[in-house]
Amino acid sequence: MVQVEKINNMVDLEAALEIRRQVFVKEQECPEDEEYEFDDESIHFLARVNDQPAGTARWRVTEKGVKLERFAVLQEFRKRGVASALLETILDELLLQGPKMIYLHAQVQAMPLYEKFGFVKEGEIFYEASIPHYKMVFRK
What we know:
This protein is an alpha+beta fold. It has a single domain, classed as Gcn5-related N-acetyltransferase (GNAT) (Aminopeptidase), CATH 3.40.630. Helices cover about 30% and strands about 40% of the residues. A seven-stranded mixed beta sheet has the order 1-2-3-4-5-7-6, with helices on both faces. β6 (about 120-130) and β7 form a beta hairpin.
């Protein structure tokens, strides 16, 4: 079973950062100096499977609205509902706070997940860290 909680201590934040290091820096070869920008102003979440850190995500307020970012699931926990649980938890929290513009930059292979939750592709393809992305906006 997947459990998702908002991070409120350094131990969980370090676990989340390590997941991002494994997924983005090592696996996807993203530049490490870009990976950790905006962490101080973000609200972070950690997903666990059987009490093991398995995935992470964050959100932050930008001039365009609320941006969901850094969805990362360790390889051994993929296809087990971790990303869906993270997304559902974050959306539930944000929607309780009232209407707002919610968006994200989706890697192309992750777009079907976001579409299931009501995100719609907007604009042209672009590249972040040499990875193709589309902006997606929450429309539910």
